[in-house]
Amino acid sequence: MITIAGQKGGNGRSVTAVNLAASLALLEKRTLLVDCDPRACSTLFAGFGASTLSCDLSSVLFGKVAPSDAVFKTRLRFMDLLPASFNLFHAASRLSLNAGNERILRIFLRELRAEYEYMIIDSPASYSFLTVTALAAADWLLVPFQCSPEDIGDFTSLLRMVRHVRSNFQERLKIAGLLFNRCGSREEIDRFLAGNDLNGVENIVYKSFVPGDDAIRAAGEDGKPVALYDVESPGARAYLDVAKEVISSFN
Ligand SMILES: Nc1ncnc2c1ncn2[C@@H]1O[C@H](COP(=O)(O)OP(=O)(O)O)[C@@H](O)[C@H]1O
Ligand SMILES: [Mg+2]
């Protein structure tokens, strides 16, 4: 289980969740995308409008349906979706009243574990109950990162939150890697890493990076992973490379 995490909004968590999940699926890995953000961006990017769904992750967290009943098939044979809606906000408000409920997503997803090789969880940008819940559900974190000094401060906050989750909910949570998003070139990334102190995490940076690519934005608006929008686009190629790197890192 991999949670796509990061403190700052707009640095590509949802885009990465959808496109990594889709690329893993194109490589014939059975993949579940779990949207744990009430903004439901990855649900939209995966092709599901908010009002078109009979149930979603909030229904599972409220105990109304079993996790498997809230799983939807996507256009890709190997990719399923456990979607979000704004009701997740209400579920979180209620669940956060009781300490320990941060483990709930991990417990529910355990029921689906045998069916998938990868579960990719999209998380909100904040210090909220749902963010901790998404981190506590994961074995690994993948952190989208931009070549901006601002992201270093956000990353430091994320590391604090990871420590909190490790000591309270999931002691084996590990960082799989930083994925540079919206970067022009490998040289730009190397210059950035050389010029900034990243607390030793520079050795867990993915070799692949995601360029700024209009096809990524347009695909999201069209409710499609970029590989189904334009398979030849730099964004689609990049996410396939990222998926291959993720697969080989777990082999
Ligand atoms: N590499 C990229 N190229 C072009 N647009 C991107 C790229 N990464 C993200 N975006 C756009 O930026 C916006 C925010 O991305 P998103 O994944 O929703 O961020 P987050 O989930 O971290 O808040 C979206 O509209 C998305 O289309
Ligand atoms: Mg998002």
Name the helix and strand elements from N-terminus to C-terminus, one letter apiece.
EHEHHEEHHEHEHEHHHH
Specify the helix fraction band.
40-55%
CATH class type: Alpha Beta
Strand order of the largest sheet: 3-4-2-5-1-6-7
How many helix segments?
Answer: 11
CATH architecture: 3-Layer(aba) Sandwich
CA(first)-CA(last) distance: 14 Å
CATH superfamily: P-loop containing nucleotide triphosphate hydrolases
Number of strands: 7
Shape field = globular
Unique ligands: adenosine-5'-diphosphate, magnesium ion
Alpha-beta content class: alpha/beta
**Main β-sheet, in a few words?**
7 strands, mixed
How much strand content do the residues show? 5-15%
CATH topology: Rossmann fold
- Gyration radius (Cα, Å) is 17 Å
Unreliable segments of 5+ consecutive residues? none
Residue-averaged pLDDT, rounded? 94
Characterise this structure.
It is a single chain. By secondary structure, the protein is of the alpha/beta class. The protein has a single domain, classed as 3-Layer(aba) Sandwich (Rossmann fold), CATH 3.40.50.300. The protein contains 11 helices and 7 strands. It has a 7-stranded mixed sheet, with helices on both faces. Strand 3 and strand 4 form a beta hairpin. The protein is globular. The chain starts with a strand and ends with a helix. The structure holds adenosine-5'-diphosphate and magnesium ion (MG). The site of magnesium ion (MG) has 5 residues, from helix 1.
